[in-house]
Amino acid sequence: MTFDQNISSAGADTLPWVLVVDDEESIRQIMVGFLRETGVEVVDAVDAASALVILGKRLTEPLIVFVDVVMPGMDGLTLSRKLRATLKTARIVLMSGQTSRKSWWPADLREIPFLDKPFRHSELVEMVRLARAENDGA
User: Fold this and answer.
1) In whole angstroms, how far apart are CA 28 and each of 69, 102, 117?
2) d(CA 138, CA 134)
3) Which pTM was predicted?
4) Which SS3 state, helix, strand or coil, does residue 25 take?
5) Mean pLDDT for all residues in the chain
6) Domain spans in the chain, listed from the N-terminal domain onward
7) Which is the CATH superfamily of the domain at 15-102+114-137?
């Protein structure tokens, strides 16, 4: 099982962090670059299984888990269900360039925020801002 952890050892488990789960390397690279600009630590995973391994090793929950809907192996909808069952404070954001019609999604996942690919830099920044505000108010 392979995964990239784009983190600095000095900030591990102390900075607010986000997790990006997407099987497309180019998407992960773009998101990591955009998200680092917000001052959070960014960790990325190539698939759902790697994301679960990363989450199991961390001492704190991420602010946000960005989850691609269509991935090989466990899809993003299934991963989102697992995350909702285990994470207490993390915001889950689904993203896809293929399945933007939420009316087709299972009813239990329709309230999860969604980013339609391609998304804008400002959309990612706003997601981090909202998650930080929620976390500060908790």
Assistant:
1) 14, 23, 12
2) 6
3) 0.86
4) helix
5) 87
6) 15-102+114-137
7) Response regulator (3.40.50.2300)
